[in-house]
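Re: the 109-residue chain
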Amino acid sequence: MRWLYLAIAIVSEVIATSALKAANGFTRWEPSLLVITGYASAFYFLSLALRTIQLGVAYAIWSGVGVALIILVGWVIYRQPLNVASFIGIALIVSGVIVLHIFSKSAVH
């Protein structure tokens, strides 16, 4: 369940961050509500994941996957351009998360 909790936390955070742009400085109530509930959900599920995943490992995965997903959301939803360096950066982030998960002795499997 710990990895499911972390995945839910990451997806909630990505949804909240994406809605933050649409909230336009909290001037639009629908996306603003999504921001608040998304971050609340993200931190709740992160706290559950941290019961059994080390803090550094969980945060590395949370931030790495979150950054990669936000870049993709910006590209797909907000039509923000990506270049070769962007794709290489995403690949490096994902590779780092995989290495951390598979090979790190500090990660709980």
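The chain has a mean pLDDT of 89.
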